[in-house]
């Protein structure tokens, strides 16, 4: 069985890219009338300029498929940043090694304090995020964090530097159920130009991380691309191919995809191409129509008004009230939900600054249920 990185070397996106540029209205209408994009070429057609004229029926179809497979629910989670220490140089990231920011790794007491704030806000699903640093973010440290938090968070996900399967196993055994790893860009040349030092330089090693995580026993996987680093059509096609591969090869896991768009951060890089809002909608609806069972995550990188508009058309998972700085939740004013100090060590600045309760209230108004807990470890214990 070949891994996705092996398969990726043989994939040729010339034909789908040509379709994404030239598909006709008739092709888009055919896909809408059949209710599914059955092939990668159909998916490509939904990214085309011709499809822009069909955004409304595409949103309707995407909404219908989402409600059929996920109901009118949105799963809520919050990121908890453990450390902003990082040995990698990623030119677009606030935590990049050479950036002059205050560096911090939370001690276990502070991790628990931050987590309790999120717990009090209603969250039962938490994403632990850390830069890649073998000294500060060791396996033992993360395992201890997971053990502490698993007492009151039934669902714990990780977003860390990629590891070997054997090093994931203790984290699964400690109570982690999900692993997220975004390829950032699927264009190898761009990847090499943006990741110039540290273990993250290894494009293919990163690409096969979800499969190593699956082998270690994670039951949810998350993949994604950071839109704004390279041509968005190519990123969307590669992301869809990656998702297809994981659905086939890691079939017991639930898969989520994410399409974060670049936000301002302390870095040395200017984005090459912003994915415009209507094209962002195109990518979300195309993914849903091609992969109806796959979860789609929307983060607080996007502004409130856009998040409210996107939630009913294909999104299944949302973060809310996020801080992207280690220790950032302790500096929120609990009454006003405003930060009481500048977030100097944040990874990027969020755009939707509403509290989790406000976001849940809006979802409710839209006819959706904000789901805070959808899993319990007792469900998988013998
Ligand atoms: S993107 Fe991740 S690996 Fe790269 S500098 Fe930021 S935290 Fe480190």
Could you please describe the fold and organization of this structure?
- The chain is of the alpha/beta class and 382 residues long.
- Helix content is 41%, strand content 14%.
- The protein contains 16 helices and 11 strands.
- The protein has helices spanning 4-10, 14-22, 25-34, 40-45, 49-52, 55-70, 108-120, 139-149, 165-174, 188-194, 203-207, 209-216, 232-249, 277-290, 304-310, 356-365; strands at residues 73-83, 89-90, 125-130, 155-159, 178-184, 195-197, 220-225, 254-258, 295-298, 317-319, 369-371.
- An 8-stranded parallel β-barrel has the order 1-3-4-5-7-8-9-10.
- α15 links the parallel β9 (295-298) and β10.
- α6 (55-70) packs across α14, α8 (139-149) packs parallel to α9 (165-174) and α9 (165-174) crosses α12 (209-216).
- The mean pLDDT is 93.
- It binds iron/sulfur cluster (SF4).
- Iron/sulfur cluster binds at residues 86, 88, 90, 93, 95-96, 131-132, 200.
- Residues 86, 88, 90, 93, 95-96, 131-132, 200 line the site of iron/sulfur cluster.
- Its cofactor is [4Fe-4S] cluster.
- InterPro entries: Aldolase_TIM, BATS_dom, rSAM, rSAM_sf, ThiH, ThiH/NoCL/HydG-like.
- Its EC number is 4.1.99.19.
């Amino acid at each position: 069985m070949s891994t996705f990185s092996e398969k990726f070397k043989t994939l040729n996106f010339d034909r789908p890219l040509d379709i994404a540029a030239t598909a006709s209205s008739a092709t888009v209408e055919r896909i809408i009338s059949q209710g599914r994009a059955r092939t990668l070429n159909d998916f490509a057609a939904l990214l085309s300029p011709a499809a822009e004229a069909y955004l409304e029926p595409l949103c309707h179809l995407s909404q219908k498929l989402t409600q059929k497979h996920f109901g009118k629910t949105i799963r809520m989670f919050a990121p908890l940043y453990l450390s902003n220490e990082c040995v990698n140089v990623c030119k677009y990231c606030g935590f990049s090694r050479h950036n002059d920011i205050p560096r911090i790794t939370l001690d276990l007491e502070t991790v628990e304090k931050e987590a309790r704030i999120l717990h009090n806000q209603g969250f039962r699903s938490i994403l632990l995020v850390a830069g890649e640093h073998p000294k500060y973010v060791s396996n033992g440290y993360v395992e201890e964090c997971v053990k502490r938090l698993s007492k009151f968070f039934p669902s714990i996900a990780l977003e860390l530097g990629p590891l070997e399967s054997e090093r994931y196993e203790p984290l699964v055994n400690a109570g982690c159920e999900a692993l997220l790893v975004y390829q950032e860009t699927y264009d190898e040349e761009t990847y090499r130009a943006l990741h110039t030092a540290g273990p993250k330089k290894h494009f293919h090693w990163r690409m096969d991380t979800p499969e190593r995580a699956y082998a270690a026993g994670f039951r949810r996987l998350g993949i994604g691309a950071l839109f704004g680093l390279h041509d968005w059509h190519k990123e969307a096609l590669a992301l869809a191919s990656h998702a297809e591969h994981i659905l086939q090869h890691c079939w017991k896991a639930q898969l989520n995809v994410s399409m974060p768009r670049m936000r301002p951060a302390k870095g040395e890089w200017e984005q090459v191409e912003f994915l415009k809002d209507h094209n962002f909608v195109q990518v979300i609806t195309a993914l849903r129509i091609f992969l109806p069972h796959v979860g789609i995550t929307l983060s607080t990188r996007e502004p409130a008004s856009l998040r409210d508009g996107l939630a009913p058309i294909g999104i299944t998972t949302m973060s809310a009230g996020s801080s992207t700085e280690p220790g950032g939740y302790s500096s929120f004013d609990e009454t006003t939900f405003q930060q009481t100090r500048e977030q100097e060590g944040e990874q990027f600045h969020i755009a939707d600054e509403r509290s989790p309760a406000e976001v849940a209230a809006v979802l409710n108004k839209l006819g959706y249920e904000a789901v805070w807990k959808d899993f319990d470890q007792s469900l998988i214990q013998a």
